[in-house]
Design brief:
The protein is of the alpha+beta class. The chain is built from seven helices and eight strands. It is elongated and about 65 Å long.
Length: about 200
């Protein structure tokens, strides 16, 4: 991936790819041409045919230099704002079209960070996990352990990046509370006793 990074960086320096300009709090500006994580890559450029042609050449050079093959069938062209002739641009690169908001590495891209819908995936993962557990009889101590070890850790990744709305926090807490007190039967359990 060092080869790809170098090619993309040099293309940006030469004006063949524009990248994305970001401004920091202090007013400093930074241009980001790409982000890499394991085998996932995001490349930023202008929505112009010339830039996508340049990107296509860069990817071909990368394949030749590394011996790796880029699977453009898995690649997605995602426009930011309104873009004319989007289908032609996707054909130029040889990939399919996508749209914002989308998910990248488990994070919602293009979604409003304060919207409760940003947390729908987290809530769905918790519900799926609970559905598996509710089919079994699990003691109260076991339910507490599952909540602390598994359910409570599901939102941590997203929590490390964006603030959770209060309404979502209440819904997630209610899911955990209902599982703790409702157990596997779905309803409230009567007085639970344990043998010592």
């Amino acid at each position: 991936m060092k080869v790809l990074s170098t090619l993309l960086r040099r293309a940006g320096e030469g004006g063949f790819l524009s990248g994305c300009r970001l401004r920091g709090r202090g007013g400093g500006e930074l241009t980001v041409s790409h982000l890499l994580f394991a085998d996932d890559t995001i490349i930023f450029c202008e929505a112009r045919k010339a830039q996508l042609t340049n990107l296509s050449w860069i990817l071909a050079w990368f394949e030749a230099a590394s011996g790796l093959r880029i699977n453009l069938a898995k690649s997605v062209l995602i426009p930011v704002e309104e873009v004319d002739e989007l289908e032609e641009l996707a054909v130029e690169l040889g990939c399919r079209l996508g749209a914002l908001p989308t998910v990248y590495l488990g994070l919602p891209l293009g979604a409003h960070h304060k919207a409760s819908s940003t947390w729908d995936g987290v809530e769905e993962r918790m519900r799926r996990r609970l559905a598996q557990w509710k089919r079994q009889y699990i003691s109260k101590g076991g339910r507490i352990t599952l909540i602390k070890s598994t359910l409570a850790s599901i939102p941590i990744y997203l929590l490390s990046l964006i603030r959770i709305p209060k309404s979502v926090a209440k819904r997630l807490e209610k899911l955990q509370r209902d599982f703790l007190w409702g157990g596997g039967g779905g309803g409230k359990l009567g007085g639970e006793s344990s043998l010592n």
